[in-house]
Structures are given as C-alpha cells and as structure tokens.
Amino acid sequence: MMYNYKDYNEQKYETGFWNINRSRYKWFQNYTKLKIFKKWVKSCKNKSVFLDAGGGVGNWTFHFLKDFKKCIVLDISKTALEQIPEKEIVRLKGSILNIPLKNNSVDCILLADVFEHIFPKDLPLMLQEMHRILKKDGRIIIFTSEYGHGIDILFDKLLFQMKGRLTPADIECGHVNRLTLEEKRKLFIGANLKLVDYYNYSIFFQQLTDFVKDSSAKILGMLLGKNKQEKGQSVKDIFKTSKEPSPIIRLLLYVPTFISYLDIALGKFIRGSYIFLLLEKRNKKE
C-alpha cells in the first residue's frame, strides 16, 4: 500500500477518522500510555521545548502543557492544526522528514502512533531529523507497533489474515510497517541514537481490555437505541470529549485501565504487538 503522506492525513482529519480527544481515559486506552509518557518526561533534564511530532490535533500535547515552557505540534495536515483549540499550543506545519526547526533546539520529542505510518525507506531520514533537532541531553519518546507475540497477532496468523507482517487492523488504520525491536535498534544506531529504555505492550491484558471495551460499548449502544453502524463507537466518543468524567464513571474506568497496565509487568520479557521506546543521542565514544 502506497500513499501520499499529506493527502492521506488530510483525508483522515477531514472525515473525522482522527479527531480531538482530551480525555485521560479514551475508553481505557490513554491511561497506560500517559503513565509511561509522563514517567519518561520527568526524566528529561531540561523542559523548555516539547515537540509532538506528527501530533495532529494535539491530543497528547494537551497533557504536557504544564511540563514545558513551549509545546509544539508538528503535522503535515493543515486541517489537523486548525482544529487545535488550545491557544498556548504552537502549531507548526511540516513533515517529520524535513522538520522546520533549528539544530539542537528541542528537549523532548514525542512520536506517538506515528512511526508505523512511515514507509520503511523513510524511517532513517525521519530519525536523522529527530537527532538533528534534539538537544544534547534531550529525549525521544516513541510508541509504535511491534512485530512480536501479542495475542492479536497470533490470532490473525492462525486465521491466515496477515498481509505480510500487517494485521487487518493495521491496514485499516494506514500502518505501513511493523518492525521487530532488533530491526528498530539497527535504525537507531544508524541515526546515532541510543535505546535507553523500553516496554513491550499489548501482549495479552490490553487485548482483554479491548474486548471488555468493545463489548460494553456495543451493549450500551443497544440500550441507548443507537443504530447498528454507530453502535459502540458513539458511546466511546462520549469519553473522548470528557477531560475528567464524573467520580463514578472514573472509578468504573480505572478497573479495566489497570488490567491493560498489567502488560507492562511483562514488558521486559515478552514481545507484544506494541512497544514504548525511550531514546537519546549517542555519545561520540559509544
């Protein structure tokens, strides 16, 4: 599958396939990501400039506005940038293959759910650009797909639904690569970046949470009288728009979010379907 990055992203935001979500929960999913992202953000020595690379409508940047003096969302989609409601977020139109920022100017780069949308031939250039703009003591935080042993991948393999390394869900969401950790390490070394820490994710418990999430949303959708096409998704969208649900709803959400977080306990031992990666510049001696 080949596509033009700009046209593809514009279409996704114009149709609302990707949209604004300021909830810490996102129907169970954001919780674990934020726990890891915030843990690694705290390890940044300086907190002047934060860059959400390929950040779209600023769904992740929103959560770090109080941590950095300046927060930037870089995206190739004009539509996405125009939808960002927070005035304090700096909007920067451009490609992660040619980032319009000065050398050594960013303290922390977040690349969340973006790496897997970049064609393998372009990954070295993307990483080189990140190395160029990253300060000496800066950090790069990545969340992306992994070619591992997640139960969803194993299930798709058993059903012969894989297209090479890509699952049907990957193809639907526009993913174009699914690399192993070893393959990523080689790319990082080639860009003069060092892997400092990682957690495999989406091994088993996150998929269990997804099952609970989807089943609950469909049941609620039926009870609310939603039509078949909207069933489930309309319920999930309610939580996207709520920055802080009521205490009762919050309590109900914490149980499944904790279940999904259990994958992190296995994250050093079993390769999952996704992975958290923390990078920094390599020293000349390394």
N- to C-terminal distance = 37 Å
Compute the number of strand runs. 7
Q: What is the ordering of alpha helices and beta strands?
A: HHEEHEEHEHHHEHHHE
What is the radius of gyration computed over CA atoms, rounded to a whole number of angstroms?
19 Å
The CATH topology of the largest domain is Rossmann fold
Secondary-structure arrangement, i.e. CATH architecture of the largest domain = 3-Layer(aba) Sandwich
Give unreliable regions as ranges.
Answer: none
* CATH evolutionary superfamily of the largest domain: Vaccinia Virus protein VP39
Largest sheet: 7 strands, mixed
Envelope shape: globular
List the domain count as a whole number.
2
Structural class of the secondary structure composition?
alpha/beta
- Average pLDDT works out at 88
Question: Order of strands across the biggest sheet?
Answer: 3-2-1-4-5-7-6
Number of helices, where a helix is a run of at least 4 consecutive DSSP H or I residues: 10
CATH class of the largest domain: Alpha Beta
Helix share bin: 25-40%
What fraction of the residues are assigned to beta strands by DSSP?
15-25%
